[in-house]
Amino acid sequence: MSQYPAFPTGCESVSAVMALRHAGISVSVDEFVDHYLECDPYFYRKNGRLYGPDPYKVFAGDPRSEYSCGCMAPVIENALLRCVGKKNVVKNTTGEALSDLCRRYIDQNVPILVWATMEMRPVGEGNTWILPDGREFVWPAGEHCLLLVGYNDKEYVFNDPRYGTTVAYEKEAVEVAYAALGKQSLVIE
Q1: What's the angle, vertex CA 6, arms to CA 62 and CA 188, rounded to 5?
Q2: Domain residues for 30?
């Protein structure tokens, strides 16, 4: 599935919907965003500083806007839990090595939501803002969520919502990008 044109910053939601559909749960990206994903598009300036939402708690912005940021694994985990109820199990596998996840899930034909970067490029420093708790947050420019669906000796294979197709990236580049985003991953078992 492609995130374009409707969800230019919605890679997390599109990847989640692909995983849901693989698990036999029929939901559209519109339904997922409108009914399950918590979004907070409210950013404001005060005394020359930018203030905004915590992307570990809500989607920072609106996935339908090209000017939004995105969210991290706990936000999608909560949305998935609201969506699936007790039908399936949503597991936060953050911190686990991709090689271990592949053996445990991909080998059993279970895809994995993975936070990395677009085209596995080095992560950059994006906008900086103050979170509601007063901490400063720097958005990891290039952040991207993809659905890991396969692997071989040299590459990891993803359904990449940026392209709307299956794409393979070199293992080393994926592991660097995955680590740069805190080794965030989710599975629907």
Answers
A1: 75
A2: 11-188
Predicted TM-score (pTM) of the model is 0.97
Mean pLDDT of 111-120: 98
9 CB neighbour count, 10 Å cutoff:
21
Q: How far apart are CA 162 and CA 2, in angstroms?
A: 6
Q: Is residue 6 part of a domain?
A: no
DSSP string of 94-125?
Answer: TT--HHHHHHHTGGGT--EEEEEEGGGPPPEE
Which of 94, 114, 117, 95 is CA-nearest to residue 106?
114
Assign 59 to helix, strand or coil.
strand
Structural domain contains residue 111:
yes
Which pair of structure tokens corresponds to residue 129? 């803002």
Question: How far is residue 116's CA from residue 176's CA, in Å, rounded to a whole number?
Answer: 8
Alpha helices, DSSP H, located in the chain: 11-22, 29-35, 73-84, 98-104, 171-180
Asked whether residue 2 is assigned to any structural domain, the reply reads no
Domain count, the chain: 1
* Cα–Cα dist 143/148, whole Å: 15
The CATH number given to whatever domain includes residue 95 is 3.90.70.10
Q: Is 66 a residue whose pLDDT tops 80?
A: yes
Q: Quick check: 130 and 49 in contact, CB under 8 A?
A: yes
How many CB atoms are located within 10 Å of the residue 34 CB? 11
Q: Is residue 58 part of a domain?
A: yes
Task: Give 45-48 contacts, CB < 8 A, sequence gap 24+.
Answer: none
